[in-house]
Amino acid sequence: MNNWNRVVQGTEPRYSDLLHQDSVYGVATGYCISASLLTIINKWAIMKFPYPGALTALQYFTSVVGVLLCGQFNLIEHDPLNLVTMWRFLPAAIIFYMTLFTNSELLLHSNVDTFIVFRSAVPIFVAIGETLFLNRPWPSFKTWISLATILGGSLLYVLTDYQFTITAYSWAIAYLVSMSIDLVYIKHVVTTIGLNTWGLVLYNNLEALLLFPLELVIMGELQKLRHGSTEKPDWYTFPVVLPVGLSCLFGLAISFFGFSCRRRISATGFTVLGIVNKLLTVVINLVIWDKHSSFIGTLGLLICMFGGVMYQQSTRKKLKGVQKDKPQEQVGVQKKLQENEEAHKL
C-alpha cells in the first residue's frame, strides 16, 4: 500500500510516463540522424542529378510506395485514403511541397552552410506564428535572447559569404517563408485531422506527388529533363543512382520521424531541434568536400547553432505552474482511495 501511495503522490515515476519519455527521445534521435544526413545526401544527389523537382518527386513516390507496400504486408498500419480527408489535407501538402522544392533549389544554387543559416533563422518566425495562430504564450526574455543570437550569427554568415548571389538568396528567403508557414500550420494539422503517423506520411507525400506536373510546367523543368537526357545519358549509373536512392530512403525516414516529433513537442521546439541536429551536418560538410564557408562564416554558423542550444520553450513556466497543481489533485485521489478501502472493510 505504501508503494501505491508513493505512486499516487507523484514521488515515483509512473511506468506509462517513462514509456512516453523514451518514445519522445527515440523519435527525436531518429529525426536528428535522418535530418543531419539528409541535407548532405540531398546536396550530393543534386550535384549528380541537378533537377530539384524531379528529385523531390522521386522522394514522394518512394514514400508513398513504401507505406502502401508495408501496409499491404501488414508491417505497418496506415489510415485508408478517402477524398474528404485528402481535400482537408491539401493545404498542408501544398505548403510541404513548397518547402521541399525551395529546399532543393537552395541546395542547387548555394552551399550547405547557407541552407543551415537560413534554417537557423526559422524559429524566430515560428515563435511569432505559434503565438498568433496556435494560442501559445509570447516567448520569454531568455528565449528572445537566444533567437537574437541565432539572427546575429545568420547576419555574420551573410556578410562573409563569398558565394553570395541574388538567385541563391532569393531561394533562401523563399525557403525561410515556406518553412516557417509549414512548421506552424502542419503542427495544427497533425493535432486536429485525426490521422496516425503513417497516415500523415501517406497523405502528405501522395498529394505532394500529384502537384509535381504543375512544377514541370511552371518551372520549365520538363524541358531541362529532355535536354539533360540527350546530353547526360549517365542517369542510370551507380554514381547517380546511389545518392538519389539514399535521398529517397532518408526522405521516407524523415517523414515518419518528423511527423512523430510534431505530435510530441511544440512547433518552435521542433524547429530548434532541427537546428541543433545540423551540428553533425556541419562536421560532415567540412570533412568531405570544400563546398563550405570561410572560417568567419563557419563561426557565424556555429553562433546560430549555439542560439538554438540556448533556446527554451516559452511554455516551460506554464508547465511548471500546472505541475504545482498536480499534488493537490493527487491528494484528492488518495483520499477517495482510502474512503473506498474503508467502505470495503465495513
Residue runs with pLDDT of under 50 for 5 or more positions = 2-13, 313-346
Strand content: under 5%
Count of separate structural domains: 1
Mean pLDDT: 74
- What does the radius of gyration come to? 23 Å
Total of DSSP H or I helical runs spanning 4+ residues: 15
How does the major sheet shape up?
none
**Class from helix and strand fractions:** mainly alpha
Determine the fraction of residues in helical runs and give it as a percent range.
over 70%
What characteristic shape results from the CA principal axes? globular
Question: How would you spell out the order of helices and strands?
Answer: HHHHHHHHHHHHHHH
DSSP summary, beta strand count: 0
End-to-end Cα distance? 19 Å
List the helices and strands and how they pair.
Elements: H1 2-9, H2 15-48, H3 52-72, H4 83-109, H5 112-133, H6 141-159, H7 166-192, H8 197-210, H9 212-218, H10 221-231, H11 238-264, H12 267-276, H13 278-288, H14 295-310, H15 316-345
Helix pairs in contact: 2-11, 2-13, 3-4, 3-8, 3-11, 4-7, 4-8, 5-6, 5-7, 5-12, 5-14, 6-14, 8-11, 12-14
Descriptive notes:
This protein has 346 residues and is mainly α. It has one domain. It has 15 helices and no strands. Helix 2 packs antiparallel against helix 11 (238-264) and helix 8 crosses helix 11 (238-264). It is globular, with a radius of gyration of 23 Å. Mean pLDDT is 74; it is low at 2-13 and 313-346.
